[in-house]
Structures are given as structure tokens and as C-alpha cells.
Design goal:
4-stranded antiparallel β-sheet, 366 residues, 58% strand, 1 helix, mainly beta, single chain, Methylamine Dehydrogenase, Chain H
Length: 366
Amino acid sequence: MRRRRFLAAFGTAASVGLAGCGYAPGGGDSHGTARVDPGGLGSEPMWAVGAAGIVGARSGRITVFEGEGVEFTEGTELRRATRAGTDRWWHTYRTESTAVALGDAVYLLDVEGRVVAFAGREREDEDGRVTVEGTRLWRTGVEGVRAPLVAAGSVAYVATDTGVAAVRDGTVQWRVSLSAPPETLLPTDGGVLAAAGETVVSLANDGAERWRTAGEGPLAATAERVYVQTPDGALAALDRRGRRLWTADASFGLSSIATTADAVYAVGTSGLTAFDADGTERWRVGRTLATRTAVPAPEGAYLAGRGTVEALGPEGRRWERDLETDSSEPVAGWLDGQRVALLFDAGTIYWFQRTDQREGLLSGHR
């Protein structure tokens, strides 16, 4: 009996028991779920994911508890969690918001045109119990501010009607004018990339322009490369000085770009092309992809769409899973050891086995 049919016969609970008997997890096997709930009512939640964890925010009708009283108002509920889905702190902000970002602090862009920073602070009660509460650090207005909002460390970068502004410790550090309001911002090591109109501009952390090139979002960056979409829809690789290294036909159009240190994946609605960092095509898969999020890995790419997850590699589709009870949109994904983790906008994190382990079923490996 093949391994997949064997598991189907015994069910999910049996697979857990088999783990101690030498069962080797297969690609696409479920490793469970977790839930991050930003609370509140009204608009769809906003999400930001970074190496430090996850923040979810929901703007709209909220409930505020003060002493023994209850107040209903318009505002934003914030929930800060680890990437394992464990709550760290929450906060109620009494103003609605339009964007959220995660750096050293949690940053909100509120509807009053202000960038606001929050962090968790420990508090010990009279019984010696320590809890972490969300605390507002600072709030500052930025003229003409608008989404998107991103963060790197202690700096929040935000779009304006005329370009980009950088805010740190409650102070606008600098403003830069561009030819159009940026549609995409991407923080990089020591600065930010801004895609405005058909131009991509690299700005240093002091606001100085490093370089600019013809291009637009999506954007991606590694320690050595920057990847942009050219105005005619091709994939272009640049070095950190903005010099064009190579250009390749993405064939399927570009909806997202995902990178590892030595590879780049050009993802479109009708296929995926994998390139080496030097522009050499590795492989391609031509098929309809209802993807919103791509997670790159050495063995291929993991793609998530509304209620679906699939893995693509040199051999084509390696596995596919339907989230039968969840039809929400993917927000972000990341590698978690031998698993891939995906966050969907309903607040659920799913984990899946990346690839089959070398040992087979009941191989004796423990």
C-alpha cells in the first residue's frame, strides 16, 4: 500500500502515532494551525509580518473597557503575536487606521494623517504577576501622508502625495519628492526602494538618492541584488548601485517576485519561471496560478491563493492542498525549518511539510 493511501486509511490521528514508529512526513502533510485574532469589527484586518513576529490590526467599531464601564467607538484593535501564533500583547487605539507596519515597534497610519508607534511593556501587578501591555510610544503628523507604510528597525517609511517621508522617534527625519506618489515601498539594508509611476528610486537612510531606473512594482531585494519589473513587463536584476545586470522575459507576466540568495522566482497568473541570480533560466512551469503570495525556497516555491496552497519545483507541481474550511486570501509566508508557514487574512496560520523526508514509511528512522 502506498504511503498516501496508508495514511488515508488510518486518518490524521494515526499519522501522529506513526511519527514515533519511523513515519517520514511527506510533502504537503499538515502540521497544524494557529490563530491570530486582531479583534474589532468592520473592515478587513491589516497585517504585517517580519522576522520578529506578526501584527494584525482591524479598524472600525471597537469596544473599550475602562474600569467597570464599556464604551463603543471607532478605532483600531492591535494584536501583536509571534510567528508561532502566540499572543504577546494587544492595544486599543481610539482612531481608525489605514495601514500597519512592523519594525522595532508596531507602526500605524491613522485616518488623521499621523504615523503612530506602539510597543509592549511589562507590568507587574500587586500579586507579582507580570503581563505585557501594548503602549503608545509616540504619534506625529505627516503632511499629505497616504499608504503604503513600511518599516525597517526604528524607521517608518510612508508614502505622501509628493513622494516619501521617513519618521523616527516621533520626528519626520526627511521628505523626498518623486514624480508621483509611490505605489510600492520596500525597505532594504540602509534605506528604502520606492516604485512611483514607471520609475524605481533607491533612497538611503538619510534620504539621499542612490539611483533610479525605469521600472515598477513588484519589487524584491537580496543582499546583492534588486529585482524590478520593467515598463514592458520583463524581469530586471540590478546591483546595489543600480547598474542593470540582466533582463529576462518572465513569459507569464509578473504578479510577484520571490528570491533566495542564489535564485529568483518570477510568478505570474499563468506560470512561474525560476532563474539563477546571474539570469540563467533554471526551469519554468506553465499553468494557471491563483496566487497572491509566493514563498521562495532552495527546492522551489510555495504559492498560496484564495483557499489553496501548492508547491512548484523543477518537476512541476509537487503537491497541492485545498483549505476546505478557509477561503480567505493569503497575506504572507515564510520557511519554518522543514515546514512552510502561511498566514491568511482571516488570521489563521497553516503549516505544511515542505518535502518528503528521505526515509520512507516505517523505515526505522527515529
